[in-house]
Specification:
The chain is mainly β and 86 residues long. Helices cover 7% and strands 36% of the residues. The protein has a five-stranded mixed beta sheet with strand order 1-7-6-3-4. Strands 2-5 form a two-stranded antiparallel ribbon. The protein is globular and about 30 Å long. It starts with 10 loop residues before the first strand and ends with a strand.
Length: 86
Amino acid sequence: TSGFTFTPTPLNVAVGDFVEFTLPGNHNVVEVSQSDWEAGDAVPVPDGFSVGFGQTKKVAFAKAGTYYYVCAPHASFGMKGQIVVK
């Protein structure tokens, strides 16, 4: 994170790669649908990835596609990111 943004975004990775999120205590990560991401909402995707406030966690990406995520309390401020898996 950098202030109220995720960097880099979009992040491009290969199928099978891990992404390590390192978050400060005031931010989290919740995977959301594209429509919620575009609207600045923070409705979690069922079985989606999440990283808690202040946590460091590696998330594996086994399928190609675009994954959308937000910081739940700051989604409406535009704190969101994308991971493109090829």
